[in-house]
Amino acid sequence: MTEARYRSGPLVWCAILAATCLLLFLFQKILWLVVPFLFGLIIYYLLFPLQQRLVLGGMSRDASAALISSVAFTLAAGGLALMFPWITTHLVSWQGSATRYIDGGLLFIAETLAWIERSSSLAAKAHLGEQLTQQIVSLGDKLAGTYLTDAALTAAAWLPSLLLAPFLAFFFLRDGWRFKKFLSRAVPNAFFERTLYLLDQVDHTARLYFQGLIKLTVLDTLCLAVGLWLIGVSAPLMLGLVTAVLAWVPYVGSILGCLLVVLVAATDYPGDPAIAYSAIGLFIWVRLLDDFFFMPLTIGRSLKLHPLLTVVMIFVGGAVAGVAGLMLVLPLLGVVMVLGETIGEIITDPRLRARHAFARRLRQRMVTRDLRL
Amino acid sequence: MLNIFDKSKLSKRLDELKKMSLFGELTPRELKIVDGFMHERNYLKGEVIFDEGEEGQAIYVILGGQVLICHQGQAERPIATLDSGNFFGELALLDDAPRAAQARAAEDCTLVVLFRGDFLSLMVSHALIASKIALQLARHLGARLRTMVRSDPGPL
Fold it and tell me: Tell me: the pLDDT tens digits for A122-181?
């Protein structure tokens, strides 16, 4: 009675895509909860192996969760407390640096366009450099005026909710396995084995994904930091870390990271565009390393999505929920896909449905045994 | 207070698990770790637990009641009837081959289920526990093989 492996049909896929878009739309409305939840999940998957070691050493799950969480969060809070005076001292100079880097970037663009004009008579006739520089400056002013204040206010509004992340991580560590059992009790016997297996696959994939993401970030940071240090760009470690974290947002994050690196390189060496080009080259090299070497080693093909669908969904995510949508769309689609395929697989299996119906009749007969006339 | 995670039955279940040959070698602490991976299910008399040919993902241990192992559609001619303390579907822990027979509840029964995925996780995170369970499983399969050889001493 071995059956061919289930493959979702167009209806199931339409439902999966619609559910992903709907969830993205809803998540955008409760971003203050979704973001800490995601961070909580990342912290949970990071601390989970340590908790397992303590459990193996003889500690109970509850005690190990409390110990691991308190040590990790005390370290994090201590680090932040130590850094706080330094951050407040440098805040004003950072503001000045931001303006300096933007000016440096604009100068780099102007120099590059001037070089293009010198090389191409067509570009020179069209006054390409002058026109593009004006448009970039006006676009920058418009963006800064329209969106930057709003974005800063929004970020400041839900930033305190990030404090939820450690609490969520603690409860994931302490009660995650109990919650899994609690959920499994809701699954009828007929569907239990297959559902639990597929949900276990979701958990396994998510664990691999988040742990891989952290490893990938560390590898990216190190490679970029070493490369930028060799080129001679300032603050290579910080720049490498920020760029690696930005790469969490597919495609758009990489472009922003590249822009950031170019801005810093162009500002550090205003008269030497070769440094900025070297930084771009380094960035592309690290991206290639990521795609062909690091990613298969860390994240792998955990989501198993078609490349076309991936790109289309990133655009859909951006359109439905902005930057948050860009970041959330792929993991969300991965989870909805597995859930949709699970439900599709179960409701299209006539034998499982028949077994469930039979079990319900048995239960009905049992509870009405003494109620017959 | 809302108590969705019922802990009251835990120690009783650990006592019952300790008596079973599959977990006989485990210390109480190790048993508690294994119990964290197990799911308790209740089946009514006649209910199908799994079908012949279905992809096996889990081993079932009988906490209470009786389970009938038979070929599909031949419940009246069971291959074996298993009581409390026995386990079945154990080959699913080793590979994902299709189930060799159907399992049905011969009477109302309570089972605990351990998934292969969780067993493989145990092998990574708690290798000692997994090896103790695997050893008991190997002994069980060895005993069954010897019984088969004795009952049919043809060429192997």
Answer: 766 666 667 777 777 776 666 666 666 666 666 666 667 778 888 899 999 888 888 888
Distance CA A53, CA B67 (A): 37
Tell me how many helices (H) and strands (E) chain A has.
14, 0
| The dihedral sign for the CA sequence A121, A127, A131, A136 | positive
A316 closest CA partner among A116, A113, A12, A25: A25
From the candidates B2, B4, B14, B39, which should be mutated to test the interface with A, based on the most A CB atoms within 10 A?
A: B39
Q: Where are the domains of chain A?
A: 10-36+104-164+177-356
Whether the CB-CB separation of B61 and B31 falls below 8 Å is answered with no
For residue range A77-107, list pLDDT tens digits in order.
888 888 877 777 766 666 666 667 777 777 7
Given CATH 3.30.950.10, say whether it is the number of domain B12-144.
no
d(CA A64, CA A355) in angstroms, rounded, equals 41
In this structure, the number of other CB atoms found within 10 A of the CB of residue B104 comes to 21
Instruction: Tell which residue, A224, A249, A253, has the closest CA to residue A237.
Output: A224
What pTM value is reported for the model? Answer: 0.69
pLDDT tens for each residue of B30-49: 888 888 888 899 999 999 99
Inter-CA distances, B99 with A2, A355, A361, B69, Å: 10, 16, 25, 11
Residue type, A234: S
- B47/A1 touch (CB, cutoff 8 Å), yes or no: no
| Chain B residue numbers touching A362 (CB-CB < 8 A) | 44-47
In the sheet that B58-64 helps form, which strands lie side by side, from edge to edge? Answer: B39-43, B109-115, B58-64, B87-88
**What is the value of ipTM here, to two decimals?**
0.81
User: Which residues in chain A touch residue B51, judged by CB atoms under 8 angstroms apart?
Assistant: 1, 351, 355
How far apart are the C-alpha atoms of A243 and A283, rounded to whole Å?
Answer: 9
- Backbone region of residue B53 per phi and psi (left: phi > 0; alpha: psi in -120 to 50; beta: other values): left
**Orientation angle between helical segments A31-56 and A307-347, nearest 10 degrees:** 70
Give contacts of A197 with chain B, Cβ < 8 Å: 57-58, 115, 117
The nearest alpha carbon in chain A to B53 belongs to A1
> C-alpha dihedral over A186, A190, A191, A192, to 10 degrees?
60
Q: Which of A225, A277, A220 is nearest to A253 (CA)?
A: A220
Q: Cβ(A224)–Cβ(A236) under 8 Å? A: yes
